[in-house]
From TrEMBL:
Keywords: ATP synthesis, Cell membrane, CF(1), Hydrogen ion transport, Ion transport, Membrane, Transport
Family, as annotated: Belongs to the ATPase delta chain family.
Name of the featured protein: ATP synthase subunit delta
Localisation per UniProt entry: Cell membrane; Membrane
InterPro entries: ATP_synth_OSCP/delta_N_sf, ATPase_OSCP/dsu
Topology of this chain in the membrane: Peripheral membrane protein
Organism of derivation: Zunongwangia pacifica
Known function: This protein is part of the stalk that links CF(0) to CF(1). It either transmits conformational changes from CF(0) to CF(1) or is implicated in proton conduction.
Length: 185
């Protein structure tokens, strides 16, 4: 669909700004209203897509239709008109709604390692997080040399300990309890 990538970038920036100003929920309601209105009005879709209608007139029309929206949403109209992208307003609104919903369910992961995570390790850990929880997470790295190697992953109340220290402790416990299996040579 034309303009989707640009719409995603706009929506992401709008959500970040809305979160900073603590109006993300209000803007969500605005975007829901905008999306439904554009979807249900062939005239409005044609108006926004028309190269004949001047951008400033499109902006005035939007402000007349959506007069009760948050100031940030009005700023979105102005920005899209200024950048000659008002024709993707509907896609921006839908992308904002998707991002907002995803943001609510964002999970944070704490990964404890001996050395800082590299990009390759982050990718592997992200895969493990997805395997364990079904979702991706924002990764925060904590350095702790006492784990000796490997990593300890904590996502919410779930902990996955793949550290060398944990493996050594488990072996030590097995030897103490006599459950250790030693192969005959």
């Amino acid at each position: 669909m034309k303009g989707t990538r640009a719409a995603q970038r706009y929506a992401k920036a709008i959500l970040e700004l809305a979160n900073d100003k603590k109006v993300a929920k209000d803007v969500k309601e605005d975007m829901l209203s905008i999306s439904k209105t554009i979807e249900n009005s062939e005239d409005l879709r044609r108006t926004l897509a028309s190269p004949i209608i001047k951008p400033n007139l499109k902006n005035q029309i939007l402000k007349a239709i959506f007069k009760d929206v948050n100031g940030l949403t009005t700023g979105v109209f102005n920005l899209l008109v200024e950048n000659n992208r008002i024709d993707i307003l509907d896609i921006v609104a839908k992308q904002y709604l998707l991002l907002f919903d995803d943001a609510i369910l964002v999970q944070n992961a704490l990964v404890t390692t001996v050395v800082p995570l590299t990009k390759e390790l982050e990718v592997k850990i992200q895969a493990k997080i997805k395997e364990l929880t079904g979702r991706e997470a924002t990764i925060k790295n904590k350095i702790d040399e006492s784990i000796l190697g490997g990593f300890v992953l904590r996502v919410g109340d779930l902990q996955y300990d793949a550290s060398v220290a944990n493996n050594l402790n488990r072996l030590k416990t097995e030897f103490k309890t006599g459950n250790a299996h030693v192969s005959k040579i």
